[in-house]
Write a structure and sequence with these properties.
It catalyses: L-aspartyl-tRNA(Asn) + L-glutamine + ATP + H2O = L-asparaginyl-tRNA(Asn) + L-glutamate + ADP + phosphate + 2 H(+); L-glutamyl-tRNA(Gln) + L-glutamine + ATP + H2O = L-glutaminyl-tRNA(Gln) + L-glutamate + ADP + phosphate + H(+). It holds the Pfam family GatB_Yqey. It comes from Candidatus Collierbacteria bacterium GW2011_GWB2_44_22. This is Aspartyl/glutamyl-tRNA(Asn/Gln) amidotransferase subunit B. Belongs to the GatB/GatE family. GatB subfamily. It contains 13 helices and 17 strands. It is α+β, with helices and mostly antiparallel strands and about 450 residues long. It has 3 domains: about 290 residues, no CATH class; about 70 residues, no CATH class; about 60 residues, Arc Repressor Mutant, subunit A. Strands 1, 2, 6, 7, 10, 11, 12, 13, 14 and 15 form a 10-stranded mixed beta sheet that branches. Strands 5-4-16 form a 3-stranded antiparallel beta sheet, with no helix packed on it. β11 and β12 form a beta hairpin. The longest helix is centred in the middle third of the chain and has 22 residues. The chain binds zinc ion.
Length: about 450
């Protein structure tokens, strides 16, 4: 029996714009007093009209371009209908069949290409707070997050292991942070992960696919890895016990319990038709001109993989380049590039010193580099020979020492320093001189 997991990922990223997606309320909702950042638009009051946030659209295009997507000349917003207390309007403005960006890819380090199906724009929902008031369990709703711009990045089911999924997620995270559209802080819920998983099983009977499962709202890479691993095992077991295969109607949604380390059934998955998508009548379709796309493309900084390879070209080891890029050590990267023009500086050594915490790039880099890379003579037998030679060639100074003029030790140390071009430790030389003079 051969088992091949098919893993896709939906990643939601909250954009860091000043205002929300379709109104002027502040988008930064974290830690604000509940329901203080709302207006008729993001509360979904009748008659309120949404106006798209240009900056958010640009951020969405940036993400699409960074993921090698085509930017669709014609795009539009759609209404996705569902009922939930945190969804003020009873629908979410999203993009259905004409997203801003589609058909991109991301390369893993192995060279494997992970397809990106689409990158689309939508708005966030409010937040429910389950609490106890006067001894009664109640649920409160905070609409500060309602209408905050979101981008959803949907991959193809091209990943075959939890390790590949983790690498993909880390790369997406780095790209988002590098292009500056969001801090993608997982603890603040700025990046939320939804793996979609099923398993291809090949046995004597042929090729079988287990039913698709989508795992909702995971907020850490490690939980995503654990949930994927659990789900692969569970699906293989379920197939062995029941023989149930994937069909058009048996996709389900599961949650992940990070304490028990298990996934659990939440609901049978809604199909697109259940959402009754239709074009958002209050926002005209978008025509995105090539000039505009090129302008955005020019604004993109070097992406993490490009930055790593530019450091590698200077001679920096890949593992060090990856650390510098993933920790966004911009100063260090700049310094390595600057100093690479200096023949005396080896970029590989410089990068390694920085990564290992031996050189602080915010201080005088050159002085630190010189003192750290100076090749000192530390071999004691070599130093002993040097000192002995100086003693042998200066019998009159030795005689003075024997008469009690102990300060002539300084003379021998000075001579030895000269001989070693200042690279030996004066402390070791002083010990050797005293020892040899008294022997
Ligand atoms: Zn508002």
């Amino acid at each position: 029996m051969k088992i091949t997991p098919l893993i896709g990922l939906e990643v939601h990223v909250e954009l860091e714009t000043k205002s929300k997606m379709f109104c002027g309320c502040p988008a930064d909702h974290f830690g604000k007093a509940p329901n203080t950042q709302t207006c008729p638009v993001c509360l979904g009051l009748p008659g309120a009209l949404p106006v798209p946030n240009k900056k958010a659209v640009e951020s969405c295009l940036k993400i699409g371009l960074a993921l090698n997507c085509s930017i669709n000349r014609l795009s539009k917003f759609d209404r996705k209908q569902y009922f939930y207390p945190d969804l003020a309007k009873g629908y979410q403005i999203s993009q259905y069949d004409q997203p801003f960006c589609s058909e991109g890819f991301l390369n893993l380090d192995s060279g494997k290409k992970i397809g990106i199906e689409r990158v689309h724009q939508e708005e966030d929902t409010g937040k429910l707070q389950h609490t106890v008031l006067n001894g009664k369990k109640i649920t409160l709703v905070d609409f500060n997050r309602s209408g905050v711009p979101l981008v959803e990045i949907v991959s193809k089911p091209d990943m075959a292991s939890s390790a590949e999924a983790k690498e993909y997620l880390k790369k997406i995270h780095e790209i988002i942070r590098t292009i500056g559209v969001s801090s993608a802080d997982m603890e603040k819920g700025q990046m939320r992960l939804e793996p979609t998983i099923n398993v291809c099983i090949e046995n004597e009977g042929g090729i079988h696919y287990t039913p698709l499962v989508e795992i909702k709202n995971i907020n850490s890479f490690n939980f995503a890895v654990q949930a994927i691993e659990f789900e692969i095992k569970r699906q293989v077991e379920e197939y062995e016990n029941t023989g149930t295969e994937k069909s058009l109607t048996n996709k389900t949604t599961r949650g992940y319990d990070s304490v028990k380390k298990v996934t659990f059934l939440q609901r049978t998955k809604e199909e697109a038709k259940d959402y009754r998508y239709f074009p958002e009548p209050d926002i005209p379709p978008f025509i995105i001109e090539d000039d505009f796309v090129e302008k955005i493309r020019k604004e993109l900084p070097l992406l993490p993989d490009q930055e790593i390879s530019s450091l590698e070209k200077l001679g920096v080891e890949k593992k060090d380049a990856k650390v510098l890029v993933s920790t966004q050590n911009r100063l260090a990267i700049q310094i390595i590039h600057d100093y690479s023009r200096d023949d005396r500086v080896d970029p590989r050594k410089l990068a390694s010193l920085i990564v290992n915490g031996k050189l602080d790039p915010s201080k005088d880099t050159k002085a630190q580099y010189d003192s750290l890379t100076k090749v000192g003579i530390t071999d004691k037998s070599v130093l002993t020979a040097i000192v002995q030679k100086i003693i042998d060639t200066n019998p009159n100074v030795v005689a003075e020492y024997k008469k009690g003029k102990t300060n002539v030790v300084g003379f021998f140390i000075g001579q030895a320093m000269k001989e070693t071009k200042g690279t030996a430790s004066p402390l070791i030389l002083s010990e050797l001189v005293t020892k040899l003079l008294n022997s």
